[in-house]
Amino acid sequence: MRWPGVSLWGLLWLWVPLAGGRPVRLEKVRADTRNLTRTLSTRIQQLQLFPLSLKISGLEAIPGEGAPEGLGAMDHRLQLFQRLLAGLAAGSLPLAQIANDMENLRSLLAALAAHLGCPPSRVSPGPPAPPGLSDLLAEAPHTAAGLALARLRVCLDGIAARLDGLLAC
Hints:
By secondary structure, the chain is mostly helical. It has helices at 2-19, 26-47, 71-87, 95-115, 133-139, 141-162. Helix 2 packs antiparallel against helix 4 and helix 2 packs antiparallel against helix 6 (141-162). The longest helix has 22 residues, at 26-47.
């Protein structure tokens, strides 16, 4: 008769460490997001492809000027860049690490949105590719990769700058 009671107490003692857990603070998520955006921006800068002022036809539809306004717009724009980088065949560029970091950044933005009480973003197939992009990627993949990464870097710098003032969705 005593053994079932002892095992019940033993099981209850196992739950004590779980009750002491604390949720992650909003400032911690915000700081992690800011650090990852800066890390991504630095990785892109270290590739040193070419200056941002280069104009090329076919990639005007890719956003790059200014930062998105809210968390949903930030996630949407990162998803667009993620699709674009997946389509690049830039063999010598280390785009796999950048793509992984972008996925982690999108996860941090989702956690930040959950902390702020934003509705969860619906899963979408992704934004459509800009018209003429596949032709440009076939003709000049290195140039397209460089311009896309330069615009992504501008976007990331804008996101990092807006994180401190972000109070709502």
